[in-house]
Write a structure and sequence with these properties.
alpha/beta, 52% helix, Rossmann fold, 5 domains, 12% strand
Length: 685
């Protein structure tokens, strides 16, 4: 319909226009471009595009107002009244009047309309006239690749409102102060989400009643921003895309299993064409509001499906962290931690800084930064380790300028080295703690994370996030790491609380230097809480909130020496038929059982031992050992003599087979205790 002047409007129409103008916020850049075109400079056609609810119609109404102020005849029409078969009187006049301003909304509603406009309608428009087109999708490449349109068409992607403009919009709606933070966290700068949320906040908000999106808000935004999906599979793909940080085709395929992984390619192509989904080098991501409402709707509508989506995405991302190339580790860890953003703090994408491996020419800069950050002693430690383990270091630069701002190191230590202990008081403190608590076993190592950053960057979240993601990646990718330690210089309360409650680390009493309150050491025993258990603890926190503390979990787990472990296996085999006795075995508190979540520990131990005995059949050399152990322990033969008789063996031969079989089971299980339950049995003779 045509845009009406104030004289043509009734009192209700004038009231509606005033309210809309009061609520209009931001869009200064788009208005400036329109005004330039309006007053004879710039372009003949403006093409505004953005997802549903982003404010396209509101912007076109504002354009209409500016055109009226400029004295230009203006008409605003719905795209549905135009088309190849329609000669709309509302639009045809622009073909005759060089001062005309035509505003076309909802371009996407009619298939083929964009092509008709480009090829047949717009070329007949008078020079000087101005046409603005608005739709959800950007113009296809035929507009932008055509040299004829290069100087006549300006494409305006409409983004979220800036933070200040979003606040101004809430001001105009009278949103209570206590409702603003949660509303802005949900809606960001999306105008429709802000207006819907503001209506709820004004109606229901108040002291002690924090704002949350009700189902009416969620349903409306689903309709306006997301719309209908062609099928259940398409909706499932959308829900996966909303849950993951960035969606790639392989992630989509993994999360769809076992339903329809073969459809992943077609569904991915559909996702990338949606107007509210953006493509980047890392994959696909929906607009923040689309993500929020899809997540909120699935969590409310089908909690079981939400949990299943989370578990499948989580499992895929854990595997990606473990298998990623070194340069891709930070991105893989960031994608994994994004799943835990609801619990444990903020998530912020790192754009301002990037990570590099340490090169020889970077060492003077490392020493300068270390000396400026912590003094000559710390610089000497950095020089010592840069010579011994240069591969352990990472450098963090400001992306825009290349300025080096911080260094980190992940030192891998396998045995006590007096020179290292003497050179570095932090390493000395970690060795002292490990030896006094649970020493390293043969083939194990400990790791020490060190950071050197000037005070001006020590509190920079993006820099510290990058270092933290590297540390987490190292922990999840390490083999046979017994302990990890992190030194934190000048730790603040928030950092300490996050390390303790969110990441399950504990600060230790050892200090690199006696009385040094500027430094703290945090430790994690990966034998007491392996990586899988640590990740599952993070998942439990996502669903249920923080537990009472990290010590409560690690105190229930045991780290045994090889001798203690073998004795516990021998005793457990003798008690195999008694679950009450197995429940008291220290093996129920080892890594072997900790990784078997969801099972009663005694039952899990019984199953593990029976499987270990059965595995002996896989090696022809140990079949005789399997027979001896099976008759003795699995079949519950009352006496050893009777077992030998049933096997048709001399008693001395039978005893030798039992001893050798037990030794083989102990070796196999010890191997799995050290390397994880997914490791194949040891086949050493």
């Amino acid at each position: 319909m045509s845009s009406a002047s104030d004289n043509e409007l009734g009192s209700l129409g004038r009231s509606l226009r005033t309210a809309r103008e009061t609520a209009f916020a931001g869009r200064e850049e788009e208005l400036a471009i329109f005004k330039a075109a309006l007053y004879g400079g710039g372009y003949s056609v403006l093409y505004v595009h953005g997802p549903g609810g982003i404010g396209k119609s509101a912007l076109l109404r504002r354009f209409a107002h500016e055109a009226e102020v400029a004295g230009r005849p203006v008409s605003m029409v719905d795209g549905r009244v135009l088309g190849p078969a329609v000669s709309g009187a509302e639009a045809d006049w622009v073909l005759r009047d060089r001062d005309a301003v035509l505003l076309i909304d909802d371009l996407d509603r009619v298939r083929g309309l964009a092509e008709w406009l480009r090829e047949r309608f717009l070329p007949r428009v008078q020079m000087g006239a101005l046409v603005v087109i608005a739709g959800r999708n950007p113009p296809d490449m035929r507009w932008q690749a055509d040299p004829g349109w290069a100087g006549a068409l300006r494409v305006l992607p409409l983004r979220d409102l800036r933070a200040g403009d979003a606040q101004a919009l809430l001001d105009s709606c009278g949103v209570p102060a206590e409702s603003r933070e949660p509303l802005l966290a949900f809606a960001g700068g999306h105008p429709l989400a802000l207006l819907l949320g503001a209506a709820v906040a004004v109606k229901d908000g108040g002291p002690g009643r924090p704002w949350t999106p009700d189902q009416q808000v969620v349903a409306t935004l689903l309709d306006e921003v997301v719309g209908e999906s062609p099928s259940a599979a398409h909706r499932r793909a959308l829900e996966i895309c909303a849950h993951a940080y960035r969606t790639t085709e392989d992630l989509l395929r993994a999360a769809l299993r076992p339903a329809a992984p073969e459809d992943a390619g077609a569904l991915f192509r559909w996702l990338r064409r949606l107007p509210f989904v953006e493509s980047s080098a890392l994959g696909l991501s929906p607009h923040d509001v689309a993500r929020e409402v899809l997540e909120a709707d699935l969590r409310w509508r089908d909690p079981e499906a939400y949990s299943l989506t989370h578990d499948r995405v989580h499992a895929h991302l854990v595997e990606r962290v473990r298998t990623a190339g070194d340069a891709d580790v930070l991105g893989a860890v960031a994608a994994l931690l994004y799943l835990h953003r609801d619990k444990g703090g903020e998530f912020q994408e790192v754009r301002e800084f990037h990570e590099e491996v340490l090169r020889e020419e970077d060492i003077p800069t490392l020493l300068r930064v270390a000396r400026a950050a912590e003094g000559a002693e710390s610089a000497a430690c950095a020089a010592f380790w840069a010579e011994r383990q240069p591969e352990a270091f990472r450098l963090y630069r400001r992306t825009e300028t290349g300025e080096p701002v911080a260094f980190s190191a992940w030192l891998r230590l396998t045995e006590l080295d007096e020179e290292e202990v003497t050179a570095d008081p932090v390493v000395a403190a970690t060795w002292a703690h490990a030896r006094a608590t649970t020493p390293l076993r043969a083939g194990e190592h400990l790791a020490v994370g060190r950071t050197w950053a000037p005070p001006s960057y020590r509190g920079n979240q993006q820099v510290m996030d990058s270092i933290q993601w590297r540390v987490i990646g190292n922990c999840l990718r390490s083999e046979r790491m017994a302990w990890s330690y992190i030194e934190i210089r000048h730790p603040d309360r928030a950092w300490v609380d996050r390390l303790r409650r969110h990441y399950g680390m504990r600060d230790i009493s050892e200090r690199p230097s006696p009385g040094d309150d500027a430094s703290a050491l945090f430790a994690h025993d990966w034998r007491a809480m392996p990586a899988r258990a640590w990740l599952e603890r993070m998942n439990r926190r996502l669903a249920t909130g923080p537990a009472s503390g990290p010590a409560a979990t690690t105190a229930k787990l045991a780290v045994l020496s090889q001798t203690e472990f073998a004795e516990a296996v021998r005793k457990a085999l003798r008690q195999l038929s008694r679950l009450d006795a197995l429940a008291a075995s220290p093996l129920t508190r080892t890594r072997l059982i900790a990784e078997r979540t969801g099972q009663n520990p005694a039952t899990a131990l019984s199953d593990l031992l029976r499987q270990a005995v059965d595995d002996l059949r896989e090696d022809p050399r140990s079949v005789k050992f399997h027979r001896a152990l099976s008759v003795t322990f699995l079949r519950g033969t009352p006496t050893r003599e009777l077992a030998a008789e049933r096997l048709g063996l001399p008693f001395t031969t039978y005893r030798r087979h039992v001893r050798s079989g037990i030794a083989r089971v102990c070796a196999d299980l010890w191997h799995r205790e050290l390397y994880g339950t997914g490791a194949p049995p040891s086949r050493s003779s």
